[in-house]
């Protein structure tokens, strides 16, 4: 258990290991507070390699707090397109506006003040405070919880806030004041590259291999203990790619709820047969000419799964109706309208690219 383990012994070998093994990352090369903040929000539930081009694109378009605070929403969402969890970037903009009002457009160099900003919790505040401002406070994410649970053979449930708090308090007692940034980053790095979340840890590369309790007891596969989340709700949908020449139909989602304010392909609940799909299109006051069944697709959110089937429908002529549909040029949709990655399986049928795919082809 953590209380019975001499945690102080992890510090020196960890810092030496990090000095020799730290990955070269764009936000590490220039750890300005704004850049650290952007990278940490992007890295939540997203792999490092996937984040790199997003980070470059975002910080080039919005290089500072003021630019983020003043950014028009659809441009902001387009920059975030493909990363998912769009409330994260909305919260960032709200926090940026608070910084313009209260902190002269800067992230405050104070852990407690950082916590007051929208979308910044204990981990993100700790990361910004320690990496950007060298303040000796812990930054405990999933990687850190895993490596600490394994090295100390602690079987406490890491999904409990009390356990996270206990780890934060324990790390605070051993935090090297002269190397807070390196210490926190090293813990994260060890969990991301050596004591990995999926698959066996690479113990031969670990700086703690001589005193790791999970290695000694060969129990790494049981740690960390993580209580199971509730099963996700399954929602069936039929998605429509409705085209008239170079025009496509999009629909703007409500300003609240899942994928709020983003653009989607028209869709309806349930898996419709071809005949039912044609009827649905006619009910939208459109005249279908040709219909083609598409493959099934699935998208997983935190608490819900979309199980989708789709159709490409050619229509006679797109004319304005009262169904809330938006008729846009296909070429415009790629540049102007943020479409969530939930629909990525179907964007190829309108020859557009989302998120990193678009970015990679342009470079």
Précis, in short:
It is built from 17 helices and 7 strands. It has helices spanning 11-21, 26-29, 33-43, 48-61, 65-70, 73-80, 87-102, 111-115, 122-133, 142-152, 161-174, 180-193, 213-217, 274-283, 330-336, 344-347, 355-362, and strands at 233-244, 247-252, 263-264, 267-269, 288-300, 304-315, 325-329.
Distance between the termini: 50 Å
The biggest sheet, with number of strands, parallel, antiparallel or mixed sense and barrel status, is: 7 strands, mixed
Please give the CATH class of the largest domain. Mainly Alpha
Q: What does the overall shape look like? A: elongated
- The ordered string of helix (H) and strand (E) elements is HHHHHHHHHHHHHEEEEHEEEHHH
Category by helix and strand content: alpha+beta
Low-confidence stretches: 353-363
Please identify which CATH superfamily of the largest domain we are dealing with: Hypothetical protein, domain 2
Number of strands: 7
Task: Provide the domain count.
Answer: 2
CATH topology of the largest domain: Endonuclease III, domain 1
Instruction: Please give the radius of gyration in angstroms.
Output: 24 Å
Share in β-strands: 5-15%
**What's the mean pLDDT score?**
90
CATH arch. level architecture of the largest domain: Orthogonal Bundle
């Amino acid at each position: 258990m953590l209380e019975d383990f001499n945690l102080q012994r992890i510090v020196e070998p960890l810092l030496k290991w990090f000095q020799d093994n730290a990955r070269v990352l764009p936000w590490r090369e220039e750890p300005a507070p704004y850049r650290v903040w952007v990278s940490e929000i992007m890295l939540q539930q997203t792999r490092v390699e996937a984040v790199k081009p997003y980070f470059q694109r975002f910080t080039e378009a919005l290089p500072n707090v003021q630019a983020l605070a003043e950014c028009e929403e659809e441009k902001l969402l387009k920059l975030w397109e493909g990363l998912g969890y769009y409330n994260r970037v909305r919260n960032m903009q709200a926090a940026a506006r608070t910084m313009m009002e209260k902190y002269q457009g800067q992230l405050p160099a104070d852990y407690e003040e950082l916590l007051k900003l929208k979308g910044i919790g204990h981990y993100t505040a700790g990361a910004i405070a320690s990496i950007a401002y060298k303040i000796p406070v812990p930054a405990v994410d999933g990687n850190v919880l895993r490596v600490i649970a394994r090295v100390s053979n602690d079987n406490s449930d890491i999904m409990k806030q009390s356990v996270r708090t206990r780890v934060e308090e324990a790390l605070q007692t051993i935090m090297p004041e002269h190397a807070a940034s390196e210490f926190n980053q090293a813990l994260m790095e060890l969990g991301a590259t050596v004591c990995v979340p999926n698959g066996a840890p690479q113990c031969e590369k670990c700086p703690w291999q001589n005193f790791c309790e999970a290695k000694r007891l060969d129990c790494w596969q049981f740690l960390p203990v993580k209580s199971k989340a509730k099963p996700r709700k399954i929602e069936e949908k039929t998605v429509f790619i409705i085209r008239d020449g170079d025009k496509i139909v999009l629909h703007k989602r409500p300003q609240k709820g899942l994928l709020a304010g983003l653009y989607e392909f028209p869709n309806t609940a349930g898996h419709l047969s071809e005949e039912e799909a044609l009827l649905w299109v006619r009910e939208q006051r459109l005249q279908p000419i040709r219909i083609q069944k598409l493959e099934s697709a699935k998208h997983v959110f935190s608490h819900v799964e979309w199980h989708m089937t789709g159709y490409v429908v050619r229509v006679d002529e797109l004319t304005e109706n009262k169904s809330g549909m938006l008729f846009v040029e296909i070429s415009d949709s790629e540049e102007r309208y943020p479409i969530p990655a939930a629909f990525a399986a179907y964007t190829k049928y309108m020859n557009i690219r989302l998120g990193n795919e678009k970015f990679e082809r342009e470079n």
